[in-house]
Amino acid sequence: MKKFSSFVALALLCTMFTACSNLKINRPAAEPSGTTADQTSGSTASGESGNNKNDTANIEALEEAMELQKYNAYVGLNNFMTGRLDQVLTDYFDKFGDEEQPVIDKNFSFTMLSISSGDAKALETQFGFADKAPAFPAIDPVVVRLKPAMNDLTAILSEAREYYKTKGYVDDHFAKGKEMHPKIVKAADAYYAVADEFLKAMAGMGAERKKESLKKFQENDEQIRYGALKFLVDAQALSAEMEEQGITAKNILDLDMEKFRAKYDPLVDDLKNLTQHAQDEKRLKKEKIESYTLNSYIEEAQKVKVAASDIIERVNKKREVDEFHLKNRFFTENQDGTPEKFEKTLRDAIQKYNRLK
């Protein structure tokens, strides 16, 4: 059974903070042409010259808003795929395996994770952007193919969720469970095949947006926003390094520490610089950032740094992760000094970043 790599998942989560950072430019909403607000002191008596300029500005603003709305819709789709849906699939296959027949423990007990009605409704909206302007040539066709694959998968997962929630296996001795399992395996394989293509395309677009946002923050002398975003970009680079080395909790002691430190040190500097800028009241006012949301983000950023430091300590002390804590992702995500915990803290930091005001 193929699963998303940890780096791909984080890359997709990071696309959300790029989109949100663009929104923070607070560009005025477009107004209908010909209103008093559209007029300028240099307009002609008829207002034609001013109106033409304002018409162009309004059209550009509308196009930008439409593009951002569509991008954020796709980001929401990405975050669901690498978030809740990935959790549901991982939890299910950890329990039953990914072979043709399910593995059922003698002392069976299972609470299957659900896909909420809110998620389902959001998916319907997000998929609806595939045929809306502006076109995303590298992504729209993939979304069209992704929709039926995901619909098939979520439908069978929801059916299984209801079956295990009501303990239907007690009534039929797992007959339906055994019938659904190969369908889930098949649907998941079909889904992963097209999902990977979508995720890679979105990761590429997200990388460009992050680059553009950092440039804008520097040009506007928004050092706090720049530092907050740069920390996440560098944290993602650290995650990518572990992914490239194939490092997980299972083989953490195989980590190439020299390469890890090369990506870790910039992260430490980022946090130090961000913390210093955050103490500048004048800069906070200039960038119109609320101190409590910034402090909340910095607290999460500190946890990311600590999670990376814990990895260094674990490797230096040659402490393997014990077999019990390798059983599932919940355990590995809550063990100090694991890539899984680092990724979890990074996801939490990204969520806090999105709330910066």
Structure description:
- The protein is an all-alpha fold and 357 residues long.
- Helices cover 71% and strands 0% of the residues.
- It has twelve helices and no strands.
Write the layout of secondary structure elements.
Layout: H1 6-23, H2 48-96, H3 117-127, H4 140-165, H5 168-172, H6 175-219, H7 223-245, H8 257-278, H9 281-287, H10 291-316, H11 329-333, H12 339-354
Helix pairs in contact: 1-2, 1-6, 1-7, 1-12, 2-3, 2-6, 4-6, 6-7, 7-8, 7-10, 7-12, 8-10, 10-12
Rough shape? globular
Q: Which sheet architecture does the biggest sheet show?
A: none
What series of H and E elements makes up the topology? HHHHHHHHHHHH
Strand content: under 5%
Number of strands: 0
- The share of residues in helices is over 70%
Helix vs. strand class: mainly alpha
What kind of assembly state do the chains in view correspond to? single chain
Question: On the 0-100 scale, what is the average pLDDT?
Answer: 85
**Roughly how many Å apart are the termini?**
41 Å
Poorly predicted runs: 6-46
Question: Which key terms come to mind for this protein?
Answer:
globular; mainly alpha; 71% helix; 12 helices; 0% strand; 357 residues
Question: Short summary of the structure?
Answer:
The protein is an all-alpha fold and 357 residues long. The protein is built from twelve helices and no strands.
